[in-house]
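2024-03-11 09:14:02 DEBUG pipeline.ingest accepted 1 chain
2024-03-11 09:14:02 DEBUG pipeline.ingest length=283
2024-03-11 09:14:03 DEBUG pipeline.predict start
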Amino acid sequence: MENELIIKLIVGLLIFVSAALGGVLLAKFFRLRAQKIVDEAEKSLDQLYSEFRAKEILNFTIYSMLIAGLLGFLLTSSIIIAILFATGGYFLPKFYIRRQQTSRINKFNEQLVPAVDLMANSLKSGFSLPQAFEMITKEMGPPISQEFAMVLKENRLGISLDEALANFQKRVKSDELELVITATNIARETGGNLAEIFARIAKTIRDRDEMQGKIKSLTAEGKMQGIFVGVLPFLLGIILTIIDPEMMQPMWTTPLGYVFVGLAVVLVAMGGFFIKKIITIDI
């Protein structure tokens, strides 16, 4: 009897220690994950010159996970589907930031040709390259004015113009900008006519944009088909679950149902991948 009591105490102590250690490790994991989210968000928001703060993005991530997980559970009464919805909620703020970055780069690319023309005209008027950059900050709006203002700010703080332009290229992932900066660096090293080079670059980018516009109009139907095919199965699943929950219950609560859902996700992802490959044309 006494030995049995000692064994129970030892087992209870081991369970308590394991639970405490697991809790500590889990808390550390969530703390590191939260810090990583804050660090990534802070870097992205600085590049976007956004008014949002990194901690707000962290709160948004937590709320979106909770709301998406609760919505998944209410629709299907399945813990696994709720976890999948919560995982989607985790990526929602990242998707928002990525969309903002894409939108900013697209707007930047739209402004780049007029900016290059302005630099060419400024250089023809006798301005230096930094003065031409300053003209862009005064005459044009964000985001291009903000980025050139950052180049000038770094240059005034003692960073060489080459390094400031390299930082510019790292901040803005744009093929057109890479072309402009590469040509600028080569012309400055070899003593070429920058005004003439900028005029040629502007024409090259215009021709490229015109070609991309034609390709976009030709592939628009394929993109819409891809979106429709990808969204339709999941939309039908949600609608049928709302209309007849009892009929759809096995899909969300049984192992065979999980297999079918997983298979549908894989097939839709494969279809989307192949459609994207078909309609993506590099110039």
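2024-03-11 09:14:41 DEBUG pipeline.report Residues 108-212 form a domain with the Receptor-associated Protein fold (CATH 1.20.81.30).
2024-03-11 09:14:41 DEBUG pipeline.predict end
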